[in-house]
């Protein structure tokens, strides 16, 4: 999907429109589209479709035309749903959600290597953090680290971690499974980064009147004063406890 602020309308390619189940509205055959290069593309009609951006879906009427890209998000779509285009961070934002953008011309824009900032020795059977720097900046900002083949062959595991590539240093958690120390030279590839697809900003507000679970309402062995103290303590630090599966982070070790 291409984001084009220079396009006045949103377009979808003809062959994709034929696969979509929607209310297709045919237009007169004499209507055509003039591209930025001066070429003309025939408009076949309009289609009322749901466009998924990030974690949300937006219902919008799009034009069906013979174009090269599968879909072009035009200015009409961006303005209608209050999208903000941030070219400095290479992202579009709406409703507290950040959606990363990638260069259409860069074939390797979805992969970035992380290099060791300093020479590091990982003790035998130990875990440590290595400071890294991105090999090339500006491709994307938020990413998840993964292991490169150069490191995995040395018996070193790399944890999948969410990182901000705009930071001065990127922390990479590694584990040496060998019984001998491992040396990571300065400038060596210690991890690869894949861009984060969706970034959702969750509200940080917490209700002071949050009720305790029923299992904590009747605490045996505690008097009323002690029960009150426990409730106040749990309410004060309620943001440290998980209330559902959605607020728990995930991290695994990969080889």
UniProtKB/TrEMBL annotation:
GO terms for biological process: proteolysis. CDD domains: retropepsin_like. GO terms for molecular function: aspartic-type endopeptidase activity. It comes from the Eukaryota. SUPFAM superfamilies: Acid proteases (SSF50630). This is Peptidase A2 domain-containing protein. It comes from Araneus ventricosus (Orbweaver spider).
């Amino acid at each position: 999907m291409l984001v084009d602020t220079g396009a006045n309308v949103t377009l979808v390619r003809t062959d994709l429109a034929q696969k979509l189940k929607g209310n297709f509205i045919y237009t007169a055959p004499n209507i055509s589209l003039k591209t930025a290069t001066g070429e003309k593309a025939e408009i076949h009609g309009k289609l009322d479709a749901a466009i998924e951006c990030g974690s949300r879906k937006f219902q919008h009427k799009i034009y069906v035309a013979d174009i090269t890209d599968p879909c072009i998000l035009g200015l009409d779509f961006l303005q209608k749903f209050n999208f903000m285009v941030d070219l400095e961070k290479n992202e579009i934002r709406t409703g507290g959600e950040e959606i990363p953008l990638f260069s259409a011309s860069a074939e390797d824009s979805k992969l970035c290597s992380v290099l060791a900032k300093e020479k590091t020795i990982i003790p035998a059977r130990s875990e440590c953090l290595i400071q890294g720097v991105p090999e090339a900046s500006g491709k994307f900002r938020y990413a998840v680290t993964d292991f490169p083949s150069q490191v995995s062959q040395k018996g070193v595991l790399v944890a999948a971690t969410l990182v901000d590539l705009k930071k001065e240093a990127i922390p990479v958690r590694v584990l040496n499974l060998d019984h001998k120390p491992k040396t990571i030279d300065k400038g060596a590839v210690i991890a690869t980064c894949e861009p984060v697809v969706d970034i959702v900003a969750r509200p940080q507000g917490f209700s002071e009147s949050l009720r305790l679970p029923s299992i904590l309402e009747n605490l045996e062995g505690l008097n009323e004063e002690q029960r009150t103290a426990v409730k106040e303590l749990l309410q004060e630090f309620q943001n440290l406890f998980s209330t559902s599966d959605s607020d728990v982070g995930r991290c695994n070790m990969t080889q």
